[in-house]
């Protein structure tokens, strides 16, 4: 039987095209005008985003991007391109990348694949987010569907589900942490990108579970399929188990808050400022919501987090890089995608 004509798209969040304020403004505008990121009717969202957030944030954000930018471009985009190359070496179908905001766009990714395989039958969409959140996984998937429908492409779209508890993902993430455990450390902080509590409640398919009790995320519920908070706790728990980490040395926090809404607690920045006073002087920080290093890991955590911790009396701060193109992660990704592997070269 003939093999189905397939291809893969790796999808990430995206970055501005450059560190110039005008490009950052354009990127933030597209990002924050997304109705799955800021939940408000279009008119109020536009007023808030275009009138208030973007004009103030763009120059500061551009400054932050300048501290981490590489000569090849944005770390997030460059690392996603490197991941594409690493995956391409292991699968026998074409691999493209697409960004939810900025470039390369979903249309560019689809069109490139159709150029390579005109009779394409199936695109496997791999969101580079291990956890489900409306503002990351859901918006990426829905946007890819929307563009496909609009363009009238005939192939099917198969979506890889969140893999926050997948055995191979957990093993790869654990392997990326393992070498740092040789250091003398007091605590390892699992810092995840935060989201507003409102998003968790809105995504609660039961309508009566999420954030209703202290331990909702560890009480079995169908809501967990869409609960970012539950899924992040699971990743931490499974890595802790895999690496045999003592419970008293593990802490979970949330970073990158924007605006005045109630966001998931505790905040990484607040805990980093408190920990030295609790006798925690040496920390390791890992950011498992990101598979590729980006502004939030390289600037907010490795630079900003370190500053906060040391200013409060901390002595040793180690940021553990994301999995990026580590072989075990690439192998896990290929397996999760279900794409056919390249034939091993015969000796
Ligand atoms: C890991 C998944 C992510 C979730 C969930 C998420 C939610 C979320 N983000 C913002 C606002 C901003 N995030 C920004 C950067 C950024 N966010 C993610 C991932 C998630 N965001 C990544 C990978 C990045 C880095 C992009 C890069 O170019 O490296 C930014 C832009 C930078 C800045 O000005 O700080 C904003 C703004 C909200 C409001 C939100 C949930 C509602
Ligand atoms: Fe974000
Ligand atoms: Fe939950």
Automatic annotation (TrEMBL):
It comes from Filimonas lacunae. Pathway: Porphyrin-containing compound metabolism; protoheme biosynthesis; protoheme from protoporphyrin-IX: step 1/1. GO terms for molecular function: ferrochelatase activity; metal ion binding. This is Ferrochelatase. Keywords: Cytoplasm, Heme biosynthesis, Iron, Lyase, Metal-binding, Porphyrin biosynthesis. GO terms for biological process: heme biosynthetic process. It is found in: Cytoplasm. InterPro entries: Ferrochelatase, Ferrochelatase_C, Ferrochelatase_N. The keyword Methyltransferase does not apply. Its EC number is 4.98.1.1. Catalyzes the ferrous insertion into protoporphyrin IX. It catalyses: Fe-coproporphyrin III + 2 H(+) = coproporphyrin III + Fe(2+); heme b + 2 H(+) = protoporphyrin IX + Fe(2+). Fe(2+) binds at residues 193, 296. Belongs to the ferrochelatase family. Pfam families: Ferrochelatase. GO terms for cellular component: cytoplasm.
């Amino acid at each position: 039987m003939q093999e189905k004509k397939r291809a893969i798209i790796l999808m990430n969040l995206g970055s501005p095209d450059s560190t110039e304020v005008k490009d950052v403004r354009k990127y933030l505008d597209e990002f924050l005008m997304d109705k799955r990121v800021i939940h408000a009717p279009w008119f109020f969202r536009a007023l808030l985003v275009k009138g208030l957030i973007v004009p103030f944030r763009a120059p500061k954000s551009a400054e932050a991007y300048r501290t981490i930018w590489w000569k090849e471009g944005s770390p997030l985009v460059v690392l996603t391109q490197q991941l594409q190359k690493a995956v391409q070496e292991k699968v026998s179908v074409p691999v493209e990348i697409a960004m939810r905001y900025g470039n390369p766009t979903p249309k560019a990714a689809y069109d490139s694949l159709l150029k390579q395989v005109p009779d394409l039958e199936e695109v496997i969409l791999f969101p580079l987010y291990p956890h489900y959140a409306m503002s990351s996984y859901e918006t990426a998937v829905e946007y890819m569907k929307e563009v496909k429908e609009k363009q009238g492409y005939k192939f099917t779209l198969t979506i890889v589900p969140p893999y926050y508890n997948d055995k191979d993902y957990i093993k790869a993430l654990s392997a990326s942490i393992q070498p740092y455990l040789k250091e003398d450390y007091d605590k390892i902080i699992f810092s995840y990108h935060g989201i507003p509590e409102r998003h968790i409640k809105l995504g609660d398919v039961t309508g009566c579970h999420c954030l209703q009790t202290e331990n909702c995320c560890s009480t079995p519920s169908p809501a967990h399929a869409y609960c970012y908070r539950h899924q992040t706790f699971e990743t931490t728990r499974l890595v802790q188990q895999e690496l045999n980490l003592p419970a008293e040395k593990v802490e979970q926090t949330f970073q990158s808050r924007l605006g005045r809404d109630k966001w998931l607690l505790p905040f990484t920045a607040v805990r980093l400022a408190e920990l030295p006073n609790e006798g925690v002087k040496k920390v390791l920080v890992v950011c498992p919501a990101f598979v590729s290093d980006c502004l939030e890991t390289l600037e907010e955590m490795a630079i900003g987090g370190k500053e906060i911790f040391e200013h409060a009396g901390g002595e040793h701060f180690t940021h553990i890089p994301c999995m990026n193109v580590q072989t075990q992660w690439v192998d896990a990704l290929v397996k999760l995608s279900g794409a056919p592997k390249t034939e091993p070269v015969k000796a």
